């Protein structure tokens, strides 16, 4: 009996703790750690993500309908990983090309971390003026040759670069006449050409919320 009461009290304590942080309920089998918010009644509304039929998604800008699947969330490091958009079959165009690629609002608490190696495909020659690595042994070539999705990009200029603070941390830019497709790999080492073992994704980080009152 004592044990039962203890259990009840413990459960009650856990419940109170959770609701004081207003953490959102799970989405499918994924936790939605605070401050991430799947609806107006939980989390912090600045950290809006979407729970769609049991799967978490990230919308790059408040007014955009394009959704990127959330693959994992690390609440201790305030990081999450989203899936890069797919490259449309038999083309070299990312599915977010018409939106200009991936772009987060400047005022958003999310940014793109410096652990992403971004590969841009089907680039115009103008890109050679930039500090990107567009050499014929650049890692993007491995992707074009060995990943089916990249096949439509073969034999077109591609470039690889580590996303770092010298570039904007809020967008991966695409446009007709620039580069028309991209992918992103997390924690890629220079010279690592084992494409099957690459960890595809765009890693984002969020700024902790100002203390809730
Ligand atoms: C929702 O998810 C389930 C399981 O993954 C799937 O079978 C179903 O087709 C999905 N429904 C919609 C409307 O996407
Ligand atoms: C470009 O990338 C390749 C493959 O990772 C590397 O061997 C080469 O040194 C890089 N070139 C420059 C200019 O960074
Ligand atoms: C490559 O880019 C050009 C111009 O930017 C575009 O017209 C073309 O459709 C792209 N190629 C593929 C295979 O998507
Ligand atoms: C992203 O935001 C975090 C948290 O404010 C910050 O520490 C980090 O330097 C930012 N990263 C970039 C690449 O701007």
From TrEMBL:
Signal sequence annotation: 1-20
Give compartment(s). Answer: Membrane
Q: How does it sit in the membrane?
A: Single-pass membrane protein
Could you read off the lineage of the organism from its UniProt record? Answer: Eukaryota, Viridiplantae, Streptophyta, Embryophyta, Tracheophyta
Report the protein name in the record: Wall-associated receptor kinase-like 20
Q: Which UniProt keywords apply?
A: Signal
Q: Does the keyword Signal apply?
A: yes
GO cellular component annotations of the record: membrane
Q: Which residues form the Wall-associated receptor kinase galacturonan-binding domain?
A: 24-82
Annotated membrane-spanning segments are none
Query: Which InterPro entries would you find in this protein's record?
Result: WAK_GUB
